[in-house]
## 1
Amino acid sequence: MDWTIFSFLLADGLQNGTIYALLALCLVLVFAVTRVILVPLGELLMFAPLSYALLLQGQFPGTAWLSAAMLVAWALLDRNRLRLALALLLLAGVVLGLAYWGSHGAPGWVAWLLAVLIVLPMGPATYRLFFEPLPHGTVLVYLILAVGLHFVYQGLGLVFFGPEQYRPPALLSGEASLGTVPLPRQVFVVYAFAFLAMLGLYLFFTRSLYGKALRACAVNRLGARISGINPSEAGRVAFLLATAIAAVSGMLIAPLVNAAYFMGFLLGLKGFVAGILGGLISYPMAVGGALVVGLLESYSSFTASAYKEAIVFALLLPVLFWRSLRTLELGGEEE
Amino acid sequence: MSVLEVEHLTVRYGAVEAVRDLSFRVEEGEVVTLIGPNGAGKTSTLLGLVGLVAARGSVRYRGQAQPHRTPEALSAQGLVLVPEKRELFASLSVEDNLLLGAFQRHQRRESGIRADLEWVYTLFPRLLERRTQFAGTMSGGEQQMLAIGRALMARPKLLLLDEPSLGLAPLIVREIFDILGGLKREGIPILLVEQNARMALGLADRGYVLEAGELVMEGRAQDLLHDPRVLESYLGLRGKEAEA
Ligand SMILES: Nc1ncnc2c1ncn2[C@@H]1O[C@H](COP(=O)(O)OP(=O)(O)O)[C@@H](O)[C@H]1O
Ligand SMILES: [Mg+2]
């Protein structure tokens, strides 16, 4: 392996590792607040760039129908809270209106934003419709639900977008070269977003009382409730944040890798491996784990490309083994 | 209008009936205590009261029936529980724990939160010393103070305290009961659940005695303190325990 190849692989590994880091952060955030392992995160990532691709082709994306339908179902569930229900119905109408606008000659950058906005309500609606009705569910019950949702959303992705691959335009086109490695300019947008998202989450959780309330729900749900913090609301906010980060990540990497209905799953799974490296509780360890996963994958694709996925997932074994030993030492953690 | 009126409260865990047909009330400015031995159903009463366990019977808070009560909604209305296990946010700082007690007020953009923080720090100077420390690293007594302080940050209009003396050294218990006396003088109504009957009746205006989930006695705290049955089964027993 010479220096050029080494740098190529490094750049590739860092780029993927950054995306995994963003997804791992989302998974840790959602798990900490709600005990849900958000397997369909990859699908929420995939919906946005594919909707964008359809909007640019002048087609009305099926995701808008799905998003609106979930909001209507939510309104029906909360029909006793009249003002909330009406606001949800209004929002469902707005989503359909935005999709219509986006597919009827909105400028490209507007369509970009609209694609994200159309997908956003699906996050909190997923929590409200499928997880909130089971407030005392175990991690396993939630995991089974989450896996089911992953299959449903991926299947709907196939229905909405077909099996083809799309490559929507980049926000920054062209290439810049860093030493001997030519890099698409879009990669820097990915890094900038990752930096801003992490900084934003850090400030949110350490400076704002609302962010601290989310952490409070994660460390002591009962303590949060008696302090007037509604864990259901906290769960919806966690799902909303995760969906926003995943959707924007999807929009940013779609021009670099091809976007297709199946793209989300492997991305989400590698984010999950990274999250597990951090025990699904530590944000910095999840980010570090994600970079390890990205680099390992990149270098193993050069030396043993047929096994690159297997090598990444094999990383789980020693980590899970080590964690299970620690759990035994602690005499079994709660739940 | 009473602050709290509870009628025919029954709490069940499967086949176990922890509280049976319990009725009691708390008036404005009053400290009421619920005493009884371990397992009498005191904690279950409080949990049923705030909606943390399913309960039959009616609960009226400040004249309003509360059929679908939840602890978060009651807390927003000023009915705040300090639970038996304190339930602090162990990995957050002492000050963050206190500020989160005022979460609802913060969301409503109420003023006076900073002033109340200063007030809690004057009540519990030790919390001020430890304001940047993680809540989980404090001693039992300090954690109890923090739990009470966090509840006070909600500006409670009724405070429910579940055994604030549990597991604490006598000196700390004295200190905490002095603070409770101060809150009483400020006119904050308190429902105090205790096994330490002498301390509780010393502070309270009225008391209820619970045994095996049922109300066995009620009356003015002074009368209960000198009632031969209470003397024998609670105060006397505690004396014998102390000798043993
Ligand atoms: N979660 C529970 N499940 C089953 N039984 C319970 C539970 N909590 C309490 N109990 C039972 O209910 C009774 C009353 O308990 P509790 O309310 O904790 O009493 P106290 O607070 O007066 O010590 C006891 O017999 C106890 O064993
Ligand atoms: Mg108890």
Note: Chain A touches chain B through 17 residues (CB under 8 Å).
## 2
Amino acid sequence: MWGILGRRAVDGGFSASSLRRMRSGLVSARSYAAGSKEMTVRDALNSAIDEEMSADPKVFVMGEEVGQYQGAYKITKGLLEKYGPERVYDTPITEAGFTGIGVGAAYAGLKPVVEFMTFNFSMQAIDHIINSAAKSNYMSAGQINVPIVFRGPNGAAAGVGAQHSQCYAAWYASVPGLKVLAPYSAEDARGLLKAAIRDPDPVVFLENELLYGESFPISEEALDSSFCLPIGKAKIEREGKDVTITTFSKMVGFALKAAEKLAEEGISAEVINLRSIRPLDRATINASVRKTSRLVTVEEGFPQHGVCAEICASVVEESFSYLDAPVERIAGADVPMPYAANLERLALPQVEDIVRAAKRACFRSK
Amino acid sequence: MALSRLSSRSNIISRPLSAAFRRSISTDTTPITIETSLPFTAHLCDPPSRSVESSTQELLSFFRTMALMRRMEIAADSLYKAKLIRGFCHLYDGQEAVAIGMEAAITKKDAIITAYRDHCIFLGRGGSLYEVFAELMGRQDGCSRGKGGSMHFYKKDSSFYGGHGIVGAQVPLGCGIAFAQKYSKEEAVTFAMYGDGAANQGQLFEALNISALWDLPSILVCENNHYGMGTAEWRAAKSPSYYKRGDYVPGLKVDGMDAFAVKQACKFAKEHALKNGPIILEMDTYRYHGHSMSDPGSTYRTRDEISGVRQERDPIERIKKLVLSHDLATEKELKDMEKEIRKEVDDAIAKAKDCPMPEPSELFTNVYVKGFGTESFGADRKEVKAALP
């Protein structure tokens, strides 16, 4: 129950108060599970790639600094040593070129895992992702499938400015032929990346730099090398009955914090971790809204034509008569990302924004 | 060591000079000629002469400005570690000769565009230390009002077009500025700077091809510091002779640690570009810091290599030796100058620390020049919105 999510333990011991906290089911930032393992998202991703490379010799890794440098964010640490230069390729700083080469290798039956140091740089290669990878199976009537994974950090980091902070979930998720996944926890990272690498279609795998160092409890099942999560299924991180909050990636953590704050005020929020942006789990989202009658969608990216907009449309189309309040969207501000710390904070969703929107949906704001 | 000869136009005073005859530091513009330490290597052109015309004033100002740039970058390192600078911070120490030599050869009508290692280029174009530190710390008096950060410094009034975060993008942009200069018949050129990592970008060759076809006054300057982030040049480029990579476009390989060689090459390139179209300059240079403040810079190169370059090729040491051998200042005077520079940098930092952060309303400024009153939103669109003017 409380093992659904948690954060890194502060220290090892149990105190009476911490036991009480656990039993009450409140998922605070510091819950501790006796005997359960914890894993950082970084290690989860590393182990997933490692296991899939071990299982299938066609899987190889390609990208900038993935080999000798051990990965710009250390996600591919140790892989070059373990598998050698025939499985781990350091590329020049030429996204259009190496992405095209990756897609070509996938055409011919290999299974590339292409790393973008951030997804901002994927724009240099977006023609290959969309036109060469996403559409090929369709254009060739099934002859040419593209079992490739494009992965890397997506969205804002901390103070990296306008050209390094954009979220590409909405862009890629609008393209039929692509699958778009966004993990939150270590279990998500392992299960979804393994699923992505095994998947015969092109997958855009959107990680988050600020989550790499976060530790999450991880089950024995998730640690098994055969572990895999289904693509296209969202996860209900926290059950609730008053309002549905949908989100993905780092914002899941913010939504969970918001849910705790709302609980203090007697509002029970259901938090859905989308996990899969495309295919979007409309069934789970709509079932939840039909239960709660209220929707708050949250994302980090730009608001216009965003993931939230699609979710709102789906809910209004399919569950209109169940809605008791207008749908709410919390998203990144409609401006390029500013550098100054105070402006950056204003440009990104904060926990209080989610709380406020949920209260509005419950007609509880001042 | 560089040889030097007194110009025949000056009074013939043989060395060593006694104190009574020593030139005063600030105002002397006596011409001197400096020999570059290394010859130029040319591709499809005749290299310029190794004898560079300069003056005592220029030599001293090279020392002063380069020492200022060095101090500024080292101070930025400390500020980053103190978490006053956030995000990415790419430092230029070691590469100062390129910025300074280029400025000495051109005017503010000539344009410069570079990537993210831009603090010293900005300073060279006439930016102030205060604007640099205020921007780095995200304050409202920064050169981009705190909204750009380290990678996005600009100074349009001096034809400095930034400050770009995406590797290679600045090269076609630079060729575009050159296009505009030719279109408007400005008799000016554009220096599009990039690194050895960016040198393999396809867009570079596309822009170069068009520049050559249309005779644009584009000068592509490869600052070859031998590492593209953590990847050594030989691991990224089949041919690391970047000055030759233009194929049909002429090129020059230059000792980028020698400010006078850089000056000569840029002067040569400007004359060439105005008449004949694009040319490539490869500056053989070195960065002491890692790629950025997130990179220790020692996992892919040895500390011996770094200290070796510092010992043998440091650009400021070279200028210092020239100043001393020309008797333009004593060791003590140069040390005093360095103390002044240190103080100047510290004062600018103190002032920048006192500068307030941007007003929240700045979140919505400069999205457009002409917004037609369109709505823009904060994270909670029902709580925060603005009309873009």
Note: Chain A has two domains: 36-221, 233-360.
## 3
Amino acid sequence: MTAVSDTLLLERFRAGDEQSFEQLFERHYDLVYGVLFRLTGTRAEAEDLAQDVFLKLYRQPIRHASNVAGWLYRVAVNTGYNALRANQRRYWREQATALDQPKPDSPESLAARREEQQQVRAALAKLKPRSAKLLILRESGFSYDELAGMIGVSPTSVGTLLARARKQFEEAYRTMAVDSEREEDNG
Amino acid sequence: MVKQHPDEGALMRYVDAEMGADEYRMVEQHVAHCAACRDTLQRLVSASLQAGNALEKLSPGPLERPDKRRALTALTESVTTGEQTMLEKIKNNRRTQRILIGAAAFVIVVGLFALPPVRALASDFLGLFRVQTFAFVGVDTDRLIAIFEALGEQDNLFMGEEIILEEPGEPVPVASVEDAAAQVGFTPRLPEDYGLPTEVYVTGSTHVQYILDVETLRAVMSILEIDPAALPENIDGQVFEFTIEDGILMFFDDNNDRNEHDFSILQIPSPSASYPEDTDITALGEVLLRVFGMSEREAARLAQQIDWTSTVVLPVPIEIATVREARIHGQTGLLLETLEGSSSALVWEEDGIVTLITAETSYVNLIAVGRALK
């Protein structure tokens, strides 16, 4: 049996068929959630934002429906990236005001994982928006052609942009790690 | 063996296995005999591995996997309880419409103009200006939706990265006009014969940088079928900066027995905006006019007429509001009214102060209030 295309599902939904929307949801929710989880780091926030993304599609079904998946993941990565930036700002504000407060109890392995994730996200937040979005989308498993559609560049430029993004990330991540070690030494 | 060196992008595609078998073999053969390309490849592999390993840490853990069924239930509930999108809120909410009208100036200025980064405090920045005039361009809601879609988010019209250097915060109530004046450093004008304000607030200053993202702007232009060649060169990554200083917000009760006759007056020093000296502001302004729906010819003509170093162009959604010019104390301002008459706004600049008067109804004659300011 051939799967019905996203475009056809969206057309049916726009004609009033709610089940077609559910099929689109079934098809894309996991990846949309995955992109948002990587950028936000919490299940609750990723779920809320994923809901916003699908609500946007529900309320204002896009008119240029040739690439529904591209639209969904572009909206997801933009939404997630904005949340990442906001979370980073909040994180640094809290760090600045809570230096003397004891850290909440948590199992060591969990705390270490959170700390590692925080460093990765902090490095992402330092990159140019397009670079950060490219890295997350590539990490989520999308091909160069799909990435090109999502961020609005030609497929031939994706390699160059990814090479640049990875280099920027490597530098930013290294700086974060050095800063973190220095803080530990001082602490 | 391929004599020409593959560029970095091709090597990256090779690393990511994003090329056809023939090209893959050619690159492989070339790299086997070219030390320089091997070095580049090594570097790319190393950066890719490091990025991949780090980003892998962000994947959902076993307890964080998506729960599709629960998410679909939540979505269905949200749909049936009638939560609105940003655009629907704009269309349906009177207060939002007023804010939209008031904020349009802010949106467009930060979208167009700004400052160079801190590093350029010295020499390469001269394009500082203050808002002196307001103009408008009608834009239809479908077009706004298309722009929102192209940007991938419905509540943001900016085509670039926003860096908020200073957030305005909530307006702070003060006891009197005199107290507000002492805090902000200028004395607001008050409308004669309308009594004293019932509430007075000091509004905080705002300082925002915008880094223009040409790729996003191109994507928007492509969706709107505008030739990207219209964009001036060398504008990618240029930093624009926008500053609003502390202002005074006053609420008046025009008629004591009917709340809907209330109006508010906001006065702030003319916002300043700046941008790198080599920015072709007229060309950029022309692109923006076209994004908002003007024909190529019309946009070119208007872009030449507008003094982009002192004018704020407001995009006015034509399905929501009407707009016309109004003369206040010899200055040209804009009077905006929502179509169903639920709110109105009047904005103009005079002696270095921008004044915005808003009312929840069209019963208040904003022009009369504006002219009564002394």
Note: Chain A touches chain B through 65 residues (CB under 8 Å).
## 4
Amino acid sequence: MALNGDDEDFEWEPPTEAEMKVIQARRERQDKISKLMGDYLLKGYKMLGECCDACGTILLQDRQQKNYCVSCQEMDSDIDKDNPALNAQAALSQVRERQLAAQTPEVNGGPSTSSSQAGGSVPQPRPEHCEGAAAGGRTPLPPPAAPPPSAPVPAASLATARPPAPPQSAVFRPVLQDAEEAVLTKLRWATAQLQSSPSLEASIQLCSLITSCANSLRSLKELSQ
Amino acid sequence: MPPSERLRLEHVLEMVSALEAVILRSFGPEGGQVLFTRNTGQAMLSRSGTRILSALHLEHPLARMVVECVWKHSRATGDGSKTFILLLASLLRMISKAISRELGASHTYGFTEAAKAAAAPHLANKLLELASSDLDDLVAVNVVPYGFCLSLEDFTTHRLLLASFFHTRVSHVHCSYLSELTCEMLNRWKHKSDLPCVSLQFLSDNFPALHTPVSGFPVSSSRLIEGQVIHRDFATARLPNKQQPVKAAVFTNYMQPVLLGPGDVLKVGYGDGVTEQNTMVHFSAWTERSLESVIAKLQSLGVSLLLSAVKQSDAALALATQAHMSLVECVSEEELSLFMQLSGVTPVSRGCTIQAKHVAALSFCRPILLGAHRYVHVAFCEAAETCELNPCSLVICGPGEEQTDQYICAIRDAVCMLMTTWEPKHTSEAAASHGTVQSNKSPASSDMTTQSTANEPYVLKKCVLEPGCVIPAGGTFEFLLSKALLNSSLPSVSQLLANALLSVPRQIYSHSPKLFLQAQTRIMSLVQNPSNSVRLKESTSESTVDLGLESVACKCQLILAVVQCATSVLRVDTVLHAHTALHTRSKKHTNSSQDSTEDEEED
């Protein structure tokens, strides 16, 4: 049954693995939607003859005459998980992609240490950092995507100022105070940036930076007590 | 959906998948029951696909169309409503997959959508052609040899078939008891000289009058009682005397002429004016006199029981009591017609003289207490017409009203299913279309030979499926037919149908995929060795005991109905929403597409 002629029949190739995964995921999503709709129908919801404007799923109506779309209101959206502004994983993958694109033309022989970051390659942030859960003592600051040149330097200085080794308290205190000052400076800078930032992505990252700064301040205060 | 958007295949699939999700958990012998409740407190318990789907609130026009198809199929065959939806959903999925594959090469999306929309009905039409013409032959050749016919003498096979049917409708505890009860009832109603379908048809037509629901008792209290139960109580305090035979007469109208009803105009003294001789008083006296003469005539014939379709007047009641007659009022039409069929009397109509043909002889007539109600129980004398019949009525008990209702529906559908098994109907439809085509081709000639050859395919087609053919359940039919379709030299759409059919056994064994593979291998191995007929019979008898039986005719009709439904659903191009005047926003749309369905939102 070749509707488009024989040539295109010969051009058909089986879908690649990635496409298969997408197809499979879509099918599973459709099955879940159908199951949910079936459950709602058995609960007494009415199946309307209309579709949702956003996703095209059939609308249901409850006893209070309120319309309900199963996929919009209950299931995670198909495309939201790819939006970096809404999903940390997507943001991470976007950052990694940019790094990959930036690293390939560069010939960077030596390993990039945390101190020499002026070149432009940004150290790989660990996922936990992005989530905003910064444990005390570790380097909690994820560098923003378009870092100003001053940013890596205080980060580097913070990285070197590690409190876990148990020095004597006399040596300890000035180090802690320096650390606190540095964090406060960073906090002030981040706030100023946040007020003027136009991009959503940058604002979110600045907010997480502020959270990490606050956490580090708290842990520094605990240490000093 | 905007008012006149073209219907997409995905939309249809989504709707059918939602209906499938509704019935899926009740499917199969291990399926569950659905309890529906209303705000009034009324409840309904069901495992029947038709009842579940009909109880849903569906405003979607295609969903209503599908439920209507299911309902009609269930009315015709009594079984297979859940399988219908399952098969429909998987068929639509196969069609969708086939179309996406075909059009996967096309890179212009606009063209793809239009091509998709045109491809689906095209495929469906080809499937319908296949199902109408070749399905019966395929089944007769490839499936029927692995089954056998129900025997008329021995009711064991009937019992097995009914038990597997009840397994899908009521809880498994009561299956065997209900199938025994139904078999006994069939046995007693069986007319020795007739085919079973005659008595089954009679049972099916008169089922409302032949059963009495009694709630508050366990199912094991259900039984058959002799004669007929009239679901009314005596209107007169006096009960008929115990002498045999009890004579009864049936009245469909008022015994006393009605004086005046609303809207009646009585012209008194017409022509001569109102005189002393023709006032209202005289008229009412005349009506009383005519009533007295009716009662006197009945008394002279020895009638002691009066069955009336309407509520008689107080005077009639008083006179009947005085004359030692019992009166039962407001008997339903079905019960009266059954009574008249079984006793062979004609009803007394207005104005006719009462003769012997209006009087029935009953062996007894007494009140019977069933549950909380007192009914009239009559039994018929051995009359010429009914001498071979042993009329009986079914009393079905259940713990609550909902369960009793469930058992009654199950028994009624079982009778319908047996009727379809013994009389496969769809073959005559397909044959009729072939027959007319043949006769049209031969020009209007009075040549006997051409006419006989024209009629021959008609006759041959009708006998393809033997009456009473059954096959072991558990997916045997689907496996065999699927294999036959794949091996046949039929067009490519047969593959679609073959794959869609396998979804049914897959769902039956969904709790254990291993069993599905085992069943498939067992049946395929049977197919591989066709010469080993002894082994065939052994294995079929083994699997019969384990899995139960199902009717081949019901299955064939199911497949045809599903393909027809899929075709009609896919033929719909557009759905137009036409709101009635009750709605605040009124949208009137011009109809541009020819194949469209109009949906008026009722409110």
Note: The first helix of chain B runs from residue 9 to 24.
